[in-house]
Amino acid sequence: MLKRRNKILSIIMAVTIGAVSLVGCTGSSSNKSSDEKVVNLFTWANYVPDSVVKEFQKQTGIKVNYSNFSTNEEMLAKLQATKGSQYDVIICADYMVQVMGKQKNILMQPIDKSNIPNYKNIDSAYLNQYYDKNNKYSIPYSLGSEMIVYNPDKIKKDIKGISDLWDPSLKDSEVLLEDPRSVIGMALTKLGYSINETDPKKLSEAKDELKKLRSNVKVFDADTPHTSLINGDTSIGVMWGSQASAALKGNSKLKIVYPEEGMQFEEDNFIVPVKAPHEKNAEKFINFLLDGKVSNEITTNTEYINVDTAAKKYMSQEYLNNKAVYVPKVEFSKAKHLEDVGSATKDYDSIWSEFKQQ
């Protein structure tokens, strides 16, 4: 979820890896599309492993055209531009499903679960979430969580949670995600507020807290925050689980802390655009990825939290013992989720800009 995590400010255009190649045949263009052995996937780069894509193509004869985006906002802009007609399956974040569900012209179509028998494999703990209460439009794919990673050889303080990051002893030693909602959310958490706060007064308090934190921050990095920990440029940081796992592989002495205030989770989901040209192929693709063995292969590669109960029997002991990617379900019970903050987005952007310029 990194992939991806500079959500609000990034406007990088998507790189298209695959394109639909229409074959000539009689009948309407919509019939031609529905008969094609093609499924057009749109998600973050490398989020569905190449080995899984190849196996699906081998088993079904359906070609996967894989296009990627850098941010959820970029995905939404592309989906709006095409009026939901170019892609068959999109994997995007929970809050973006919420944003799209609020729109007058919904660009997602209800997913027929009866055509996806492996839907039964999804752990019920991850269903019926705030962004799509009955999973009408979305099906969970994977889960990311933010955690603290630190070097105990350099950090002598007992790190328990987000609030500890303000300690003066950590001056010029921290790496944070270059993500306004993540960092401002930390300040709101320290104050005991929701990470989705919209009250201007409370956001102003968060801005003041960030001023106190700024001298502790040495590096901002959305994609590879673990690198500075491995090379010793920083001693402590906040990052997503897959990045934390990479950090420990680079330096086994590093320690992981699940923040006592609760972890920020992001649940990524399958959606099917309203005018998907190959709806049936989309259902087959989603069902394939929810197979237990396939799901385990995916999360072994991506190192995000697996939401598929049928995958556990395939998991290696190494995976099950990896604190970065196999997070106890009890942590999800006190999870913090990003939600759409509407017009308050401009306040978040302003706070972030000031914080970065300090």
UniProtKB/TrEMBL annotation:
GO CC entries: periplasmic space
Pfam families recorded: SBP_bac_8
CDD domains per UniProt: PBP2_PotD_PotF_like
N-terminal signal peptide: 1-21
Chain positions recorded as spermidine binding sites: Y95
Compartments it resides in: Periplasm
Keyword Signal: yes
Protein name as it appears in the record: Spermidine/putrescine transport system substrate-binding protein
Organism, as annotated: Clostridium acidisoli DSM 12555
